[in-house]
Amino acid sequence: MDAQKDQQLQLQNLLDKASDTTFGQKHNFRALSDYASFKDEVPLQFYRDIDIDALKNGTADLYWPGSVDKYAVSAGTSGKGKHLPITEDRLNSDRRFMRKVVLSYLRQQPNIFKLIGSHLSLPGSLEHHDGLAIGEISGHTGVRAPKWLKALQVVSPDKLTRLSFKEKFDLILENAIDANLKVITAVPSWILTLFQEVLKKTGKKSIAEVWPNLHLLVCGGVKLANYRPHLEKLMGDLNPYFIETYGASEGYFAFSDDFDKNDLKLITDNGIFYEFIADPLPDEESMSIQDTIPLWEVETGVPYAMVISTNAGLWRYAVRDIVEFTSVSPYRFEVKGRVSEMLDDYGEGLYIYEAEKALNKAAKQLGVQQSAFTIAPTLASESEVPFHHWFVQFTEPIHADTLKKMGKTIDEHLVEINRHYAIRRETEALSAPKVSSITQDDINRWMEASGKAKAQGKLPKVLRENVDVMG
User: How far apart are CA 14 and CA 415, in angstroms?
Assistant: First the structure.
């Protein structure tokens, strides 16, 4: 079955199953026969459009058959932020997704015995309030892992989901050092921190001396390419395989099914119907009136915002991630950033994926290798001109002269890429960018100060709080 037929079938199955829900009756799901009628009948949805309070109060059959007692934290903490509903159908889709990942690995590396040994994962925490389980999606999937997989873990996922991040990290560190570790599954930034702490604790020079049989790293949450150079350097002679997964609180969408490629294959037959908005605008009001197209109409090289309908009761929900297709046969893409990640504090209208493109060009031009970065829009006083303060993590120590050259080169590329930025620079409404080097310790310290030290915590691309923590 081809991807278009997959997607048409997914849409019809979703509509059929939810036809008797409150939302399905309101939008006449039984009468919708194709994508065009679905698009005309159901408006684009954002988090503000979901009646989460009604779901949490036990209202059944609202967006999907049954009631919902599990929620994934999309932002903030378990008590605050966005909470997305998780249904049994959604969890079943998650399991199917993970099976696809495993089967893809086995097609490329048929010897499953290389994976038999200790596994390490870092699931998010779950909190229970009034009969509801609320936490990061990795926590929900961790406690639902098969018994055979739980038995391989150096620490039980059930135990880890009940601990604070520091408690679980320390416990994993204590139990993993002497284990015959074969597989690690975690956000790449925390794998890097784990490697650094293990080397400090053991006094070894590389991870190869600690875990010589480490064979596979399964990463998600932040872009693997930003951290892989650091990880490879710390591993020494080890040459494990990497699999990158792309998922969110709303669902699991794609993964790297080829060890020799950096893009991701979109999964089209697993309870999610996809739509896309070309060149998305950053605010919800503007985005809501932009046109959407189905998967089978996308083109390569165009930035799209992703819109999904899922078996968790999300309907035409704007995920707000920006993806760019590298292939349409099969459908493969790269994740470029977030629609909302835009620097426009001083009228520069700069998307983060444009900033990242300029950074990558500058790094290549100067012969340095960078990974994570964040940008703080800065105005020191009313008598000064605002500027962008870039905090960049490099794989090697960087000389002050190189940092100055980085700022100048980034500036030159941004002027070429973005006309709003160019106008601000030409009229001196925006000063030249400044680049500072940061370490993983700096990033961890910022996340701790900002309350984001958790399994799926990540450094934002635009830094607006606790900037002083970066130095």
Answer: 46
pLDDT, tens digit, 9 for 90 and up, residues 75-111: 543 345 689 999 999 999 999 999 999 999 999 999 8
Q: pLDDT tens-digit profile of 114-147? A: 899 999 998 988 999 899 999 989 999 999 988 8
Instruction: State which H helix or E strand residue 50 sits in.
Output: none
Which residue do the tokens 């932002």 mark? 75
215, two tokens: 């064979």
Rounded distance, CA 396 to CA 399, Å? 10
Which residue in 236, 181, 191, 174 sits closest to 214, CA to CA?
Answer: 181
Cis peptide before 397 (omega within 30 of 0): no
Q: Which two tokens stand for residue 167?
A: 């408690």
H or E element: which one contains 153? none
Calculate the CA 65 to chain-centre distance: 28
- Give CA–CA dist 452/190, Å, rounded: 12
Q: Give the strand pairing for 118-121 and 126-129.
A: unpaired
**pTM for the complete prediction?**
0.80
Kindly list the distances between the CA atom of residue 432 and the CA atoms of 172, 360, 385, in Å, as whole numbers in the listed order.
Answer: 44, 18, 9
Residues 6+ apart with CB under 8 A from 148: none
